[in-house]
């Protein structure tokens, strides 16, 4: 069983909910954490049990980052919107940096999310 963080930018939340629904059976075998709004969308679409953190801009990204540092996350699936400027871009970069520094699985789109889920 792995601990997985789930995050999606606003224009990618539908994609995340659809991906989680398509992979609900496999995701149900793991401990899931999600930023606030993303977590709500996933719960509504799938019925999966997960721990909801703060919304990304309100500190949810930082909470996931702290979990990485503490060794409490094995993977992050972060559906990033490359076409929209994010006011909390610094937090996004920090989360990406920590995932890289601590060498955890990090997926930023559906293809890599599928590969990460298959690997754990």
TrEMBL record:
Q: Please tell me which top-level EC class this enzyme sits in.
A: lyase
Tell me which Gene Ontology terms the entry assigns under biological process. methylglyoxal biosynthetic process
| InterPro entries (UniProt xref) | Methylgl_synth (IPR004363), Methylglyoxal_synth_AS (IPR018148), MGS-like_dom (IPR011607), MGS-like_dom_sf (IPR036914)
Could you tell me which species this protein originates from? Answer: Arsenicitalea aurantiaca
| Catalytic activity entry | dihydroxyacetone phosphate = methylglyoxal + phosphate
Q: Which GO terms describe its cellular component?
A: cytosol
The entry assigns this protein to a family as follows: Belongs to the methylglyoxal synthase family.
One of the record's GO molecular function terms? methylglyoxal synthase activity
Function, please?
Answer: Catalyzes the formation of methylglyoxal from dihydroxyacetone phosphate.
Checking CDD domains in the record gives:
MGS
The MGS-like domain sits at 1-120
> What is the protein name stated in its UniProt record?
Methylglyoxal synthase
Could you name the domain of life of the organism this protein comes from? Bacteria
- Which amino acid positions bind substrate, per UniProt? 9, 13, 35-38, 55-56, 88
Task: Note whether Isomerase occurs among the keywords.
Answer: no
SUPFAM superfamilies named among the record's database cross-references? Methylglyoxal synthase-like
The record ties this protein, via SMART domains, to: MGS
